[in-house]
Amino acid sequence: MYEYITIILASIWLTISLIFGTFLWMKRKEVPDCSRTYLSVIYFMMALGVSSYIVTAIRHDLTEQSTQLLVPFLTIGGLWAISLIICYPIEVIRPRELRGRWLALIFLPALLVTLPPLFGLQFHELHSWTDLWAHIGDFDVLLRLLCLVLLAIFSLIMLFIPYNWRKSSADYQWIRRTTILAQGIAILFYANVLTNHQIFYYLHMLWGLCASIFFFYFELVVRLLPPAKKEPQPSEPSLTDKADGKAEDEDDYWPRICQVMDEWEEWRNPNTTVETVSRSVGTNRYYVGRIIREHTGLTFNDYMNQKRIDFVSGQLRLNPQQDHKTLYFEAGFRSRTAAYRNFVKFMGSSPSEFVATL
């Protein structure tokens, strides 16, 4: 029964990977970076791996591996897979910078752990935790455990990559979601190779399917791409500016909030939150939210989004032929759906309908 379920799930994953990979490969030149190229290669590699697994399952060669822990092919292959998978979010976070030595650096750990088997390293078969502890000091076991450690580090790497939000179509929310997806894949992979229980394999496969659909949807439906030629943006305020930008009345923070929003245009930053604004004006998040509601009648998020939509609508009035997605990006949105939803909310019509009335 388990073999039938495995083959069905693997077949679904194979079909989705081939469809998504082919579609993104055909549209890879529509974006200014290599994100779709990396993502399509990931899908093709997943399809190749799943195909080999289906062939093995049909030939009933999984019986021997079903009782083993830390199967060499899986542990080393898992590190290669995660190394390839993180290329896509890195390209989104830092467009056009994943080249040369940086690309080699990502795959260097996977290459180093692959060399010993290529030169004839023999692996012990581990059928239980007792076997694992008995051979814990052996080089081949340490090599496989090193793969798991590196996999954990790579699944967290997105949180530590600095990026310029003016040039990237990512924001902190997307980076957190991507990291959670990568962590889920890693944790279920650990459970699979350390227990070889079938349920963890199914969960790992289902989680991977969800991640595949998420990235495909984000790339084609949600993601906003930075414009090729952007208008000059206001510089970030320095710490000295923030220290000197005090209102005359220390008890009234509204002038400082207006300075942050109107002069520094912090609403353009997709990562601006009530916490970051409160730190800039020198108070707490609850007071900032209350002050904004008292002066505008809006919540902090609505206040931010209204400023963004005011910018978009103002630019469209100046030039109705401008690309909407470019304006969304420059206004601080990183999601087409969020930008469209807020435009309808504050303007009472869709962007196309708004332009038609000008």
Average pLDDT number: 87
Oligomer: single chain
Question: What's the number of extended β-strand segments?
Answer: 0
**What's the SSE pattern?**
HHHHHHHHHHHHHHHHHH
Please tell me how large the radius of gyration is.
25 Å
Beta-strand fraction estimate: under 5%
**Helical run tally:** 18
Which term fits the overall shape?
elongated
Structural class: mainly alpha
State the separation between the terminal residues, measured CA to CA: 64 Å
Helix content: 55-70%
Sequence stretches where pLDDT stays below 50 over 5 or more residues: 238-250
Give a short account of the largest sheet.
Answer: none
Quickly list its features.
358 residues; mainly alpha; 18 helices; 0% strand
What does this structure look like?
Helix 4 (72-85) runs parallel beside helix 8 (139-156) and helix 8 packs antiparallel against helix 9 (172-195). The protein is an all-alpha fold and 358 residues long. Mean pLDDT is 87; it is low at 238-250. Helices cover 69% and strands 0% of the residues.
